[in-house]
Amino acid sequence: MKYIYYNEYKLNEWRVSYESFYTTDLKLNTRKKIIETAYKVFSEKGFSVPSSIIAKEAGVSHGSIFAHFPTMNDLLISLLSDFGDKMGSSLHILKSFMLD
């Protein structure tokens, strides 16, 4: 009987681990979708766009935006940080081509 209990325990442990990974992956994808949509919406309509418009365009609930970014300033900071990372990577690639 202990052997069956041990296997069930291990199976449950794996399932919890998988579900945690899957949930984390979904959260990261939602966050990425919000940031990409915010780029698009802000570039088309300016920075005064309400968060509800970004949520609608991203296909997520309005509450999802605030689950990932407590304030619009946090969203803007993340957006600018992401932009800076992409710009730095692009400049690094460009520099490597120029040195060759």
Subunit organisation of the chains: single chain
> Mean pLDDT, nearest integer?
81
- C-alpha termini separation: 67 Å
Helix and strand run: HHHH
Low-confidence stretches: 1-11
Instruction: Identify the CATH architecture.
Output: Orthogonal Bundle
Give the count of helical stretches.
4
CATH T-level fold name: Tetracycline Repressor, domain 2
Specify the structural class: mainly alpha
Question: Helicity range of the residues?
Answer: over 70%
How many strands in all?
0
CATH superfamily: Tetracycline Repressor, domain 2
What's the number of domains?
A: 1
Query: Could you describe the largest sheet, including whether it forms a barrel?
Result: none
Structure, explained:
With 100 residues, the protein is an all-alpha fold. The protein has one domain: Orthogonal Bundle (Tetracycline Repressor, domain 2), CATH 1.10.357. Helix content is 87%, strand content 0%. The chain contains four helices and no strands. Helix 1 crosses helix 2. The protein starts with a helix and ends with a helix.
SSE layout:
Elements: H1 2-45, H2 51-58, H3 62-68, H4 72-99
Helix pairs in contact: 1-2, 1-4, 2-3
Give the key terms.
100 residues; mainly alpha; Tetracycline Repressor, domain 2; 4 helices; disordered N terminus
A few lines on this structure:
The protein is mostly helical and 100 residues long.
